[in-house]
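Input record (one chain):
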Amino acid sequence: MGKDEVVKLGKAAENYVKNVKASRGEKTEEKNKMIFLMRVCYSLFL
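The corresponding structure, as predicted from the sequence alone:
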């Protein structure tokens, strides 16, 4: 898997988490925590 694919997957995962959390009306703080964790996960592959 190339760097571009990993970045694309990470961004897609962030968007998915944002949408799910927003649809559930969950707190922004929790959403930001998940986004941070996803960024850490895919940055490990860069």
